[in-house]
Amino acid sequence: MSAGPSFLGVAIGPFEPRSPQATAIAHLFESALLICGAVFLLVAVLVVYCVFRFRANGATEPRQVAGNTRLEIAWTVAPVLVLTWLLVLTSRAMSASDPPVDRDADVTIIGHQWWWEARYPSGIVTANEIHIPTGKALVVRLESADVVHDFWVPELGRKMDATPGRAGSLWIEADQSGTYAGACAEYCGLEHAWMRILVVAETPANFAEWQRHELAPPRPPSGELALHGAALFGAMTCIKCHSIGGISSARFAPDLTHLAERSTLGAGVFANTPADLSRWLTDPQAIKAGCHMPNAQLTDTQVRAFVAYFETLR
Ligand code: CUA
Questions:
Q1: If exposure means fewest CB atoms within 10 Å of the residue's CB, which of 201, 210, 235, 296 is most exposed?
Q2: What is d(CA 281, CA 278) in angstroms, rounded to the nearest whole number?
Q3: Over the stretch 33-60, which tens digit does the pLDDT of each residue have?
Q4: Domain 224-310 adopts which CATH fold?
């Protein structure tokens, strides 16, 4: 892992593409940077040269020039050529990073204030942490449940707005196994900054194993505290927003079926540890102000029961 911006130890880097789609975009950026840098240098050098060469010395009027046809043709044709070159590079990068979508989505990702929902055709539902097989270009169908969000995992593909009422499609692919960080890249309200997503790319065999595991409901809780937590989950309002496979199917808030397996919670705002989960359940607004999870005024015993139960959701 290289130095540079990172999120929970996962590097975020548009300059370190890890897929053919992201590589095309990174190459376009580098080419455009070089071309524009050369133009900037040329202009800067000419300006500095002229400042010194034609500096006013005395009150004599400078020589008057009516025009220079050759020079005018040159400074018209040169920018046209440069822009045409950039246009060709851009359309080549677009067709490599964003090929037409001619098949059904491999995963549907839905932006919510402030988390990501992921639904696979197999029936798997998860949040903020998606798994993909390596070496396979996947079609992501992008939707929004409320306002405009923007899905971006820079190492794996292009960024795209998630617009309410208008689904989009983008390609995502990973050459190698690893965990890749992404974020919402469009200001979408108070907790926009905490709308992260992790993409876990794994070998097709491991991905198949993950799918098999995710499709199975979690093992029923055992132990007095965990059983108490499960009973509370059904009795309190949690069940109106959160789903747990086999128990509830609400879609307003992140699916909790395999909650204990996620590495972060709150769309990246804290690591998934029993201690942080307790803090979260005690007062979500203290950790992610403005999020739609209210403070349920839980007692310490209730918090411990919930944590014990949630730790069984594997
Ligand atoms: Cu969602 Cu910013």
A1: 235
A2: 5
A3: 999 999 999 999 999 999 988 887 776 7
A4: Immunoglobulin-like (2.60.40)
